[in-house]
Amino acid sequence: MCPTPDSTLADPHQINADLQRQLVECRAERDEALARETAMAEVLQVINSQRGVARDPRAARRFHPGANDTGERRARANGPR
Q1: How far apart are CA 64 and CA 51, in angstroms?
Q2: Per the structure, how many domains does the chain have?
Q3: Do 60 and 68 contact (CB within 8 A), yes or no?
Q4: Is the dihedral of CA 67, 69, 75, 78 positive or negative?
């Protein structure tokens, strides 16, 4: 919000009050953004910590039953390589 030339000379107390209100709004926006960023970092940490859990394909089936069924059927149909 840019003050008009007339309002700049009119009341410095009003201008100060407006600036104080803007400052409060900006701080609230900053705090909300920081909270979102912190929450996202926590989610990414959890995802990252789960990466090593299912490296073995047999272990992956425990987490996602049926995920590898099609590939296994193809391997059986094609025989050993």
Answers
A1: 14
A2: 1
A3: yes
A4: negative
pLDDT tens for each residue of 33-50: 999 999 999 999 998 888
Contact 69, 60 (CB under 8 A): no
Question: ∠49-54-60 over CA atoms, to 5°?
Answer: 145
Cα(57)–Cα(69) distance, integer angstroms: 11
Q: What are the tens digits of pLDDT across the range 56-74?
A: 556 655 555 555 566 666 6
Helices (H), 2-81: 5-10, 12-49, 57-63, 69-78
CA-to-CA separations, 73 to 61, 63, 67, 69, 79, in angstroms, rounded: 14, 19, 12, 6, 10
Query: Can you give the residue range of the structural domain that contains 70?
Result: 5-78
